[in-house]
Amino acid sequence: MPRYGKAAQKRVKSAMHRRKRGTLKSGKGGKGGRVKSRKQAIAIGLSEARKKGAKVPRKKS
Fold first, then answer.
1. Residue 10 sits in which domain range?
2. Contact at 8 Å (CB) between 25 and 33?
């Protein structure tokens, strides 16, 4: 059974595109700096997916 849903996949893909275009920002409400790292873009995409209720495993803490 897949760990991540299709909706989560779409969110991460979107975040990666925004990073490439230079419009992806970090922090609450995008008040942080521009995101350059690939890992950070993936994390933001997964976080957005989680907020929308997509199938994403919970964070390891």
1. 6-52
2. yes
What number of other Cβ atoms are within 10 A of residue 47's Cβ? 15
Q: Would you say the pTM of this structure is higher than 0.90?
A: no
Q: How far apart are CA 61 and CA 55, in angstroms?
A: 18
Residue 51 Cα distances to 21, 22, 55, angstroms: 23, 23, 10
Task: Look up residue 21 and give its amino acid.
Answer: R
For the stretch 16-45, pLDDT in tens is 999 999 999 998 888 889 999 999 999 999
Provide the domain count of the chain: 1
